[in-house]
Write a structure and sequence with these properties.
Chain A contains 9 helices and 19 strands. Chain A is α+β, with helices and mostly antiparallel strands and 472 residues long. In chain A, the strands form 6 sheets. In chain A, strands 2, 3, 4, 5, 14 and 15 form a 6-stranded antiparallel β-sheet that branches. Chain A starts with 7 loop residues before the first helix and ends in an 8-residue tail after the last strand.
Chain lengths: 472, 472
């Protein structure tokens, strides 16, 4: 989230970046710990269940007092220090020894080049068991209704203005999804409501409940900042990719690129933001105008004609400048510099409940949506080979790497390994992170073409779709 | 718009369907009449300029007192009676003799099977000259700024609850576009504002001004009902397709189908409508809920769990039924039966300023948008052959004809004519209308597969993209 929140660095440095103790969520009182989330006896589950970023072993408590990394990295205190080193920017992956991630998923990450004190990305990879809820009418569940179900889960969380929201989401969002999916056991076919649309609805509502929990806990436990969330759920043959923010997911299948998400930024969501400002002008606090102009209006231009566009327009037209057009525009800037209320460059995600306009008390949260867009990919509709993968990356990857470059790296790296070598997906994730980070040269991190590499936190999951993973 | 507005037939029959005298628009005081809209001396303009539906010759005044058809059909009083005959449903096209439509455009239409007294579709095809406006700063225009510009224009307007709005739009919308395009002469390249985006903005604002004019004139001059609008503008090498409603445009190019519009209905716009109801609950008048349920809730279900979705969701989830969930849903029904406030089945268009919920004073207009979606097609990026066409049709065509069936008819009909025969596009339009209407059999209009043909008004433009038309 480089440059995405103006004061993020200053804020973090001044606060010391120390996260508060993390209490057990009052929303999920009976949630098993990540370690026990997988059914112990479930025959189809893979041998290993990687923990989320929260459940640190006791020996790393001291290091965790200042920051944390995903538990599945199994970092020693020394490893944790290396992962936190802005100068070296060592790429981190789960160790070759020990249990692999489900499906032999590959993962790699690297810290930013100094824009924030710690790596504000977080990740989670889990196998989650969903116990069926009692039926809707309150009657006890029939034995024939089964023993519940199991889903596979991957999450990338790109934090900004602090690491608290990303850490909390990595720790709890899959539990909210599990809670929502319990209702699935009540489902009986109804007009126009498919099983798939219930899973989509469960994920959508889980994002909302996660966000509401952050709102409730933000005072007592100081959930800092906000985060983008990119989440994958695999359930009953289908892959659900849910995105809220500017991370991105693509499938590379037989060399073909299938986009599985789109980014939510002030540019892509301009009309939604402007509509809200138009319908609820009190949210603009008399400081902003919902209209967009190609440049800032000068007071001397009052009464002249100027190009503008509003919530209904994709094109530009002329209007006569009035007094309130001199206010700062709700949406301004282009590309990575685009901002809502001159402050934040991403328009969906979790948290940010305390985010205010610079030098103002005006809250920005009303313009941010916690709802993801969910895309569904049916794994059963195509015979996948071991080289077909789903790649998830935070914007640190995509800022300097195109979809086509990722597909080329997929081809290059995977073809150098035996198809049944489970380490190939981690090697691929590492290659993608290294390719986006670059190497230190000429007082910066540079790519082979001498352009600047990404100075942002970079995190990548590579999920094999037809590989040696024994999922069904 | 068959079945799209509940009381359309009853209303029309009771009012006699007679449109009021049409005054000159107060908005466009200096607008030349359609006959003079084309530059008299413009060398590139085609020899003929077809008039819109408004400018009826004196001899048809008597017939026009009850209804009107596009002037370019050149209907005699007898022809007008045949065009108005629900029993015969004769297909109407411009005569082979006389001037052709610009670009040798093909056109055909047929009246409905009795759902409304008259054909509520209207059409317009024009060449419009845009005089440059004085520059924005007020300084006189430099001679080097040129003599203005010329655009080609096609419009289909599918009326409902009366023919007034469609007739007014056919008569005036292109003039509003011309007014907006006058500002183009002031354009100098600015950050992120392209010439194309100015044309898009001009069309978007023209729709809004047209709708506002209908609102102002609705009392004095009784602009009945509303209409969908599908409009094509050709300017400087680009085709702009603007759609507000459920008409549809596709390009058939070398057998390939390129969608040039999408339909705006309660189903496709559910989330926009629900968001508005959520942010402005007063628009629901305590009669409706913005939530959607798979079926109507019964009072005895209070407190039970039920599937729902709101403005943020594409999936379904469960909620506990509360008292206000018993209200009628803002959006309900599926497919062609979907309705906003149980009343109207299309969510964008012009007019409808008087539309109220059945047996209520609650206005529906706030939920309807007059803004089109504009898609741009660059004619210069591909070498078109005489068989490449842009097909515009009202929903009467598309309700019973798929894109692929249209493409097959394009191939079948055009291959039966010489490529340079200008009558082939009218023959194609007629074939499309006939194929959607069917033939009378078994007490109904039936297609060759014995399914019911469309009982709606059907109107089709076929615009050749690389044919003998001498446009540049």
């Amino acid at each position: 989230m480089l440059n995405r929140v103006r004061w993020a660095v200053a804020h973090l440095v001044s606060s010391g970046g120390a996260p508060p103790p993390r209490p057990k969520s009052p929303d999920l009182p009976d949630a098993p710990s990540p370690q026990t989330a997988a059914p112990p006896e479930e025959p189809r589950s893979p041998p290993a269940t990687a923990g989320s970023g929260s459940a640190a072993p006791a020996k790393t408590v001291e290091a965790r007092a200042s920051f944390s990394r995903p538990t599945f990295l199994q970092l020693s205190p020394g490893g944790l220090r290396r992962a936190d080193d802005h100068a070296g920017r060592a790429v981190q992956s789960p160790p070759d020894t020990g249990r692999r991630l489900p499906w032999s998923t590959g993962y790699a990450e690297v810290i930013n080049a100094g824009k924030s004190r710690h790596n504000e990305d977080q990740a989670c990879c889990e196998v989650v068991y969903v116990e069926g809820r009692r039926s809707v009418s309150g009657a006890p569940r029939e034995p024939s209704q089964g023993q519940g179900l199991c889903f596979y889960y991957w999450g990338l969380f790109d934090g900004h203005a602090g690491g608290g929201a990303a850490e909390m989401a990595a720790r709890l969002l899959h539990r909210h999804i599990r809670e929502q999916l319990k209702d699935l056991s009540c489902w009986s076919s109804q007009k126009e409501v498919t099983h798939e649309s219930l899973v989509v609805g469960a994920i959508e509502n889980a994002f909302q409940f996660m966000d509401e929990q952050m709102a409730r806990e933000r005072r007592g436990h100081q959930v800092e900042g906000g985060c983008c969330a990119l989440v994958v759920v695999y359930l009953l043959g289908k892959v659900y990719v849910a995105n809220a923010g500017d991370s991105r997911a693509i499938i590379v299948r037989n060399g073909e690129i299938i986009p599985m998400s789109r980014e939510f930024t002030p540019e892509t969501e301009r009309q939604r933001l402007q509509l809200l400002g138009f319908l609820k002008p009190e949210l603009l606090g008399g400081e902003f105008t919902h209209l967009e102009f190609p440049r800032r209006i000068q007071p001397k231009e009052l009464g002249q004609k100027m190009l503008y566009r509003d919530q209904n327009m994709t094109g530009w037209a002329y209007k006569k400048i009035e007094l309130e057009d001199l206010r700062f525009p709700l949406v301004c800037g282009e590309g990575k510099k685009a901002r809502v209320m001159a402050t934040i460059g991403v328009t969906r995600g979790l948290g940010d409940h305390n985010l205010k306009v610079c030098s103002s008390t005006l809250p920005i949260k009303p313009f941010l949506s916690c709802f993801p867009e969910v895309r569904v990919y049916d794994l059963t509709q195509y015979e996948h080979c071991p080289d077909d993968v789903l790649v998830l990356g935070t914007d640190g990857l995509w800022d300097v790497t195109s979809d086509c470059e990722v597909a080329a790296t997929v081809d290059r790296v995977l073809s150098a390994y035996e198809p049944n070598d489970p380490s190939r997906y981690t090697a691929l994730a590492q290659a993608l992170v290294l390719g986006a980070r670059g190497i230190p040269r000429d007082r910066g991190w540079r790519l082979p073409n001498n352009k600047l590499g990404s100075g942002d936190d970079i995190s990548v999951f590579v999920i094999p779709l037809g590989g040696p993973g024994s999922y069904s």
